[in-house]
Structure formats: C-alpha cells, structure tokens
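pipeline/complex-builder :: batch 7 item 3
reading input block
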Amino acid sequence: MDQANHVLVTSTAFGVPRDVYAGELGPALRLSFLEDVAPEDRQRLLSEVDAAIVLDPAAELSAADISAMRALRFVQTLTSGIDHIPAALFPAQVKIGNTAGSTALPIAEHGVAMILAAYKRLIFEHNQLAKGDWGFFRPNRSLHGATVGILGYGGIGRKIAELLRPFGVTIEAINRSGRTHDPIDYCGSLADLGEAIRRWDVIVVSASLNSATRALLDRALFERMKPGAVLVVLSRAEIVDEQDLYSHLVAVPAFTACLDAWWEEPLKTGRPFSTRFPFLELPNFIGSPHNSSMVPSMPRNMVVSAARNVARFFHDGTGAHFAAPGDLAR
Amino acid sequence: MDQANHVLVTSTAFGVPRDVYAGELGPALRLSFLEDVAPEDRQRLLSEVDAAIVLDPAAELSAADISAMRALRFVQTLTSGIDHIPAALFPAQVKIGNTAGSTALPIAEHGVAMILAAYKRLIFEHNQLAKGDWGFFRPNRSLHGATVGILGYGGIGRKIAELLRPFGVTIEAINRSGRTHDPIDYCGSLADLGEAIRRWDVIVVSASLNSATRALLDRALFERMKPGAVLVVLSRAEIVDEQDLYSHLVAVPAFTACLDAWWEEPLKTGRPFSTRFPFLELPNFIGSPHNSSMVPSMPRNMVVSAARNVARFFHDGTGAHFAAPGDLAR
C-alpha cells in the first residue's frame, strides 16, 4: 500500500465518466469506486479511506462501513444541500464539504424566470387565453423599482442579485453573518428579517435548511409581507410553513408564491408527488418539479466541484470549502 | 387669437390628467382638447391647429376634419407602432412622431420573462404538476451561452439586450441600418437575417410592421432556425406567417414560440380573441394577451413621451423624434 491519500467514491450517480473524478483529483490521490470493491476487500479498503465523495451516504454506506472508515477525515457531498445527511452519521471530527454554488447558475436563472412569470402572470394569462379569455385590460406589473429580498445569500442568492442588476431593483439580503462585500443595498442577519421583509416586493428563499430556518416563514412573517409580494422558494420548502402559506395565498389574492422545492418530493418520499393543500388550483401560485438545476451541465459540474474541493482539502486542509455542520439533519 | 403654436389632443385615452399634457408642452404652446370643442367652433379651431396628439386618428378625425387642418405640420401618436394609421390619411408634408421607447421597459421585461419561461418550460411543467405529473427528470435548459438574435433593434430590443447582459449570452441584432454603437456582438441589416438566424438560440421580434417585415418569418426562415430555438413575438404578429409558424411548431417539438402580439386582437377586430390554428393547445407554445405594456405607469409615460416630442418639434423642428413614414399602413 502506498502513502497516497485515498478517496472513495460511494456513488457514481448521474453517470459522469470516471475520468472526470480522476482528472480533478489529480495523480497524487488514490481513487476507488465502491461499486468495484469485492465483498472480501470491503473492510480493508474502507479502513484505508481518507476521504469519501458521497451522494446519499446513509443509503450508500452501512453503520458497519462507517465504523470501518477509521482514517476518514473528509466527506464531500455531490449536492449543495446537506440536510439529507444525519449529523450523527459520521464522527464529529470528520469535516463535511458540499458543492455550494456548483448549480447556482441554472437555479438562479430559474428563480428569475419565476419572479418574472409571477410579475407578468404568464401562467394565469396563458391558461385564460387557452379558454378564450383575452386579458388585455388586466393590469400588468413592471419589476423596475422593486425591492428584492434574498433570504440565504449564498451561490444562488448572489447569482440572482447579479442577474437582476440591470432590472433597476433594490437588492437586500439576509445571511448568517449579516455582512457582505458585494455591492448590494442592504445585508442583515436572521434577526433583521422581520423588519426587512416589510420592504420586500420579492422574497427569494435560497437559504440552507437548518434549525434556524425550518418553518421560518410562518403566519407571523406572511402578515408582515406586502400584499402584492412574490415569494420564490428555490432551496428547501421546509423553510416555509405549508399550511400558513396556503392560508395566506387564499386570503391575499394579490400575493403570489412560486415553488421549485416542495415539502414532499418523490425522490425523498418514494411516493408520487402530492401536496397537503391544493396549491396548484390557485391562480396566484406557480410550481415547477424541483428541476431548476436539471440542465445538461449539472452532473458534471457537481462532480467537478466535489472533486476539486477534495483536491483542495488534501493540498491545504484549510483551502477547501466546508459545509456548515448545522445544516446536517438533526 | 395669439401667435402661439396650437396643439390639439384628439383622444384623452387612458384617462391621463390634462395637466400632464400641459406640463410637458409648456406655457408657450396653446393646448386644446377636441372633446371640448363645440360643433360650431370645430372648423375654425381645426384650421388653426399646428400639431395633433392622436391615438387612432382615422377614428378620431373625419376626412372633413383633416381637410380643415390646413396649418397642420405635425401629428404625434400616443403609440409606438403606427401601422394602424393609413399613409394617405394626412398630407405627405405632415410629419409623424411616435412614442418609440416609452413602453420599452415593461415590454422588454415581458420578453425576458417569456424567453426564460420557454427555456425553463414553466407553463408546461406547472400544468403537468397540476395533473400530478412530476417532471423532475425532464431535462431543463440554461440560457447561459445562448445566442440571442433581436429582429428590430429599437427601444424594446436595446432594453432586452441590456437586461440579458449578465446572463452570459451573445447578443446579435438586425436593424434598418445594419449598424449600432451599442456594445453588442453583431449588428446586421435585413439582408443578413437569413444567415444570422442560423446562429440564434432565441429570436426576439421587436421590429415595426412595414412592407419589408410583413410575413418576413415564413417557412424558409423557420427551416433555417435551430431546432431548439425560442421565438418571442413582442411587436407585431403580422411579421410572422401564422400558418408557417403553426406547421413548424407541430413539426419541431423542440422549438418554442411565445406570442404577446397576435394576428387577430379584439381591439383591432372588434371580435373575441381567436386564432386560425390551435396554438394554445400545443405544449411548445406560450401566449399572453398583448398586455406586456399594460403596467400602471404606461398611460402617463405615453402621454409624457408624446407631449415632450411635440414640445421638441416646436422648439427645434429637427429636434423631435420622427416615425419612419414606411411604417404607416399602406
């Protein structure tokens, strides 16, 4: 056995070619794919692994597998969100890296598409036209002059701010630190949300799901929103109280909600798509099937982002991007 | 009677307050509203008028009225398009001003909304979700890297180029001169369209309707478009051959068309909305009821733009913006 650091890929999801992993990790790291490992070699190989690249590690590795990974120092996810990974799955000293930002571009485009579709009521008017109802005189809205609030100012949120700049909007953000060097109009922390949200015409949810953000947008905050506000949920639906959102949509017809992320998604539940309330029957609601990142470049970008972060970790333990441990599932 | 130039407003459409006209025209110009004029004063007043601000002059003025307007030098429309005004309605020496650009901002936003809605298939996926069909695995598209062709590079086209800049797209334009000082990637004239259109992922129609553009986009040009191209029609549907578009949509499912302007609109025809072909039954089609400019600021912006242009005309006959006479109806 050589002394090279050893990286184990536990999932080759999305069919990205193996040479993409190898190319980004470089020749100095040893690379194994779990699906190649013979049962009789599994324990020994796991004991040698310094880092793992994972998709859904609770499904890909057993408790015995993880116990055997005595040299493990770094777990790198292929995903940006890590709220599907139990906090107790790996020992506390194992650092976690995610692929934050790797899919930000298409998700941000999707967010802008939803904001504009809501402002222009594209879906409602299209479906009315299909019924022969010519909505020429129903008033339309310009985004120019609006205040856009971004809850969770990471890769997606920053890209949305960049895409919206020529639209003549005011950009306000909420992040963990309450600070940014970006040229936006306001940045606060979660403690400032209750006041900031009163100013927002558009509310973009691009935050991580964690104990501070779960069910954060509830009736109390909906009541502070402008009546004509547009809510766009891109990261996790669990940040929004499902029942309170539905009640608000029914009570305030001028308000619009756009969801790409949902509370119950087939990939999470194993069941067909459903909602507890009939959101999709409402005229002031737009839904998409969490496909904002599903562009052809996505799988490769995720693998490149993950493998690069692993390479940085071994090149310089502090040079890698680490996920916030608080974002792991409790 | 004083020597002030005399401006007659033949339509107070949209209910914009009269002081908006007066404020923009300034105290040096005499201002009358046709609806105030008593029948016995009509002939005399019309004979004194130097300029008229009109909406639909063929409906607002009779042939006898126009004959009486012997001092008329300038007709200013409240609209940007002038293809509803017969070329022979006013004497040839009367100059025509339009409000090009006054509604460009909301129309450009609408165009970007449609481009993104087409790329993200927002309407199709929303309606599938409403039927319980979870489209997570249907591939999505990023606008990043696309080539956007703008046919008619006036107020709307230039604003779309500006709004799309941070999306990482290549911008190409076709205008009358084939030249622009704007920082875009290519500018050609109509003679270049046949070659340019082969490069375009998005085709925005924001040209005036005239003899050179009527039914310009026909089967021959559709066959040159990329199979996955997105066509967005914002100015006049008559620039597109209705039957050829429908046939192309049916033959090429990857192609998407978005129409805000239509061949038969209730305001033009006096009949309910209808199309000769069932466009709205197609999954690769998005329609809106020509409401792209119908934002609250629109009527006032049109009046301000029109009155300012009239003030410029009298301040300096060459300082005003003149519409292209070829855009009048033949």
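note: The longest strand of chain B covers residues 147-151.
queue -> next item
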